[in-house]
Amino acid sequence: MRLYQFSLIDQPWDQNPALRQLIVRATNAEGKVAQLAVLTDDLKRSSKEIVWLIFNRWIQENDFKYIDKHMGMKQITSYRSLDYRELCGQLADRQVPNELYVQKAKASRRLTRQKARLLLAEDTARRRELARQQTISQLESALASTGAESTSQAPSPAPGPGTLKPLRALRQASQRSQRYRQERREKIDQLQLDIDRIEAQKMALDKEVSRQEQLIEQNMVRLDTTNKTLMDAIKICARNLFYQTLAPFKKLYDNYRDDHAQFRELTRCDGALRLSATGMEVHLVAHLHWAPKLRRIIGEVLDSINASGPPLPDGSGRKVQLRLTEKRRIKIQITDAAADEPPSI
Question: What is the model's pTM?
Fold first, then answer.
């Protein structure tokens, strides 16, 4: 027995008073503490029962994972599909967002973001151009005060050669800025035209449409789950049979870490069949090397199965006997088919 302790605070949830919030502090057998919140709309059930259910839910989750991993619960059994035209009248219809409307809205937002980036770049370029023009005016004033020609392209020896070079670079940058500004304005105008066109198309569409009609227009199909329903029922039955057979082994083995894996290996054993007038002996050969203790436990499980007298499914009343053996102990002797004696092992 391992002792787990739980303490909790039961109170209405602040964000939605229709729900209960249970703040649970759980302490395991090693003393490790974990705190989490549980939300429920069950206002009548006791908090003790809610905590018990939610913390035991992981056993179910592990079971779901086991069924999916080893029995293929999520596998697609058939790719057969049904056209939604065939399902008209069988499904409950409802209003859903119009896919064309949603696409137009997304396109409009995308173009609006592009336009916003260009407008931001336009404003940044304008501010830089104003600062550049101020610097150009200051340099031209400095050249004029020393008698140098502000429009001359040749370096002047009088006012200092370091003044004309920055001035020339600033003027060239200003010319490029004007050219880029014109290109940006054309892109912004074109984007605005596209936005207006898309908005007009969007306004002409219905915001919500019939779900079935939309699926039919899009030529959508639905997976036919008839075969999968049958296969899933078979898998669940197989799961239940597996767990019923596992129960005695689980109790004897007493190791929750790998009891499923060990018993699954037992169900997958190869072997040999020895048929006689009274029944059939099934000699199982393990793929793994099992420890003597585990082999003894498996032997006890097989003995309990044999004691129940499982019959052959041929209606003859003969019984099946399960034996765990080793490959080196099996010797197969083939006799003449005309002989009365059956093959021996």
Answer: 0.52
